[in-house]
Sequence to fold (149 residues):
Amino acid sequence: MNRSFPSGQTVTLNGMQMYYVTCGQGEPLLLLHGFTGASSDWEPFVAEFAEEYQLILPDLRGHGRSTNPLSEFTHRQAALDVWALLDHLGIGRFKAIGASGGGNILLHLSTQQPSRVEAQVLISATSYFPEQARQAMGQFTVESQTEEA
Fold:
């Protein structure tokens, strides 16, 4: 595979630095990565999707190249960050794909401003976590992850 992932830029939104990539032309398509991931997780799909869509690929708060000054992460806050990015880019209505935690964020986007989400695909997202799962996830942080070769 000789693919080249496009370079992005950083903008200050909601008291954080959000890194994002945009590429392609056409209708806006927002791609949201999962927890502990980054925009580059979508690399295998970018070339094909960019032929038909204007892609918006953010690194969510505390992920990839985006900062998280408060060291807290909620799907609700991440959705507000994404809204701020979309507003910054002048994106009104859009289609979206969210994987895992990105799908959970997409659920928040869909309930916060449903008229702006034209269509969505959720991949391995859940709308509810039982208490035992929430306790276990509370022990799992982005900072506790290590780089793998």
Remarks:
- The chain has one domain: 9-140.
- The first helix runs from residue 43 to 50.
